[in-house]
Amino acid sequence: MAEKKEKNNASYEAKDIQVLEGLEAVRKRPGMYVGGTDIKALHHLVYEVVDNSIDEALAGVCDRIDIAIHPDSSVTVQDNGRGIPVGTHPTKKISALEVVMTTLHAGGKFGGGAYKVSGGLHGVGVSAVNALSEWCEVEVRLDGQVHFQRYERGYPKAPVKVIGKATAGEHGTRTTFKYDPQIFKEEMDFRFDTLVQRFREMAFVTRGVMIHFLDERTDRQMTFYFEGGITSFVRYLNRNRENLHPVVYVEKDMEGIGIEAAIQYTDAYTESVYSFANTINTIDGGTHLTGLRSAVTRVVNDYARKNGLLKDADPNFSGDDTREGLTAIVSVKHPDPQFESQTKVKLMNPEVQTYVQQIVGESFATFLDENPQAAKSIIAKCLTSARARDAARKARDLVIRKSALESLTLPGKLADCSERDSSKTELYIVEGDSAGGSAKQGRDRHFQAILPLRGKIMNTERARLDKILSSNEIKALISALGTGIGDNFDIEGLRYGRIIIMTDADVDGSHIRTLLLTFFFRYMPHLFEDGHLYIAQPPLYRVAHKNQVKYAYSDQEKDKLVKEIGNDKANIQRYKGLGEMNPMQLWETTMNPDNRTLLLVTVDDAAEADRTFDMLMGDAVDPRKRFIQTHAKYVRNLDI
Q1: Given 79, 504, 610, 614, which residue is catalytic?
Q2: Which of 251, 362, 506, 557 is catalytic?
Q3: Which residues of the chain have pLDDT under 70?
Q4: Identified catalytic residue from 431, 461, 473, 605
């Protein structure tokens, strides 16, 4: 007889239905409002406040925004916009400032009166920031007075009050907040470089606004002002590349939607196309990006057919053919944008695709007709790309050919693992046979696979896909991963949940790591986006005394260990290569999940990463030389 199930005595009545009032919901579920409680969400707090100031700039009533990070990691954002209204709200019967700061979906962005377009679509931005802050203070300069209110964890400490007089003609909002360690529990802090990249983008897509950013923790500061807007952005991205023609720029309003696009072809082998909606970088694209790409492909094919540059027997250029070497920005200002989520990574408005396709198509077609020399250069590049893509397709078929058992042909040098569930498996990419030998002996064969690569792989920034696929090392890498590459890339085929780059702690190891990251960034970007790519952190030193052995992962850690043991007693070994460790040492320090440290590789700003890879790995020498000279003093672990 089946055992009787134990009765669930938990109460489920009307009194048990919980209602989260006001900002409690934000503190309970921060992921719904700022994407989580990690370092990315922390920076999102700043973006939400700055977005409000950018909205003022888009409305034509603000031309300066100042952002400061203070020594205690509180952040101030100040603008010279109109200032948040402070009068009594007609239904709430409290100051409108308090309503905006403490009520979700409250603001001037919904009726269409205060803002024609707005990046802060959902109206939860600044109130969500307030809810997730230990404290927040707002000063509003309006009608000759300075109004003030302080909040702690979202709740006002007192009603809005006047604390002084504003100077003649002074107006705007100043918001200072300190993120709440009860919500953001991990040890983390704001990164200057991450914020700088975001503010640079904002300045590019909001012409005529000056953004000044000061980090009082380090005294670093940057000021951005671009009169050229997204045309300047394209020039900035292409400054290390050879351009085939001047930037093609178009700006037009259609049905109340402002559309801007800037296009330029270069000698690069990859595309650099970025999209913005109401100044927000829509990293997953959307309808505006689809419209731009469709327009470019259609116009190039039409021009090539009309002028006999494509023969009747030739197939049309594919989208990939027409996008090789293309740098483009598309920016739309929409009064009612529909995003995929609160973090606004993808634009969904269907009408935008039609409008962008029409406006970009007309402008680009006119440019090609009026500039036949530039048009021929673009078509010639597309023809070369099409031929190379055909050769790459044939090479790729060889790389990813199936055996009679319909399983991928794996490279002979791969030491695979026995586990088949990709969510549990790891692939270590190591340099050389010596490190490969130690890794193969030291690993857990159940879930860890090892792929040793011989020497340095090809610099994929300077080669087309057909040439890249002629490299045996890259062919082995593609086969081992199982995702395919280029048009055939499919993340579902990934055989390992973690791909871990494990190279020596010297100049050659750093170079090999950079070459691998360049390849993954250009040809398998989903590995970054889906969190599959890691960098192993092998120790730099072995510090031994009697029967005690400890490992140090930095010079500071080594000095601390030596001091604890006694300077004259410690036996210090500096590891220059993984091959110097025996298999057990390598397992204990670098491969054992219980002890190791892995760095997850992410891309905070794709446009900046694009430019950096181009500068470090591309053909132009001078920008790389300037970078090395500028950053020489920050180099660590340089071989002498």
Answers
A1: 504
A2: 506
A3: 1-22, 105-124, 341-344, 394-409, 487, 567, 604-611, 613-615, 618-621, 623-625, 627-640
A4: 431
Q: Give the model confidence (pLDDT) of 194-236 as tens digits.
A: 899 889 989 999 988 999 999 999 999 999 999 889 999 999 9
Using DSSP's 3-state secondary structure scheme, residue 360 falls into helix
Full DSSP string of 290-337 = HHHHHHHHHHHHHHHHHTTSS-TTSPPPPHHHHHTTEEEEEEEE-SS-
Is 639 a known active-site residue? no
Tell me how far apart the alpha carbons of residues 175 and 136 are, in angstroms, rounded to a whole number: 7
Cβ distance 230 to 329 under 8 Å?
Answer: yes
Our answer to whether residue 568 is catalytic in this structure is: no
pTM for the whole thing?
0.66
Beta-carbon-side half-sphere exposure of residue 339 (alpha carbons within 13 Å): 22
> Is 622 one of the annotated active-site residues of the chain?
no
506 an active-site residue? yes
The structural domains of the chain, ordered by start, are 24-224 (3.30.565.10), 230-396 (3.30.230.10), 422-538+599-613 (3.40.50.670)
580-614: pLDDT as tens digits: 888 998 998 899 999 888 988 887 666 666 667 66
Q: What's the confidence (pLDDT) of residue 60? A: 86
Among 216, 466, 508, 604, the one annotated catalytic: 508
Using CA atoms, how far apart are residues 392 and 387, in angstroms rounded to an integer? 9
Of the candidates 138, 199, 206, which has an alpha carbon nearest to the alpha carbon of residue 173?
Answer: 138
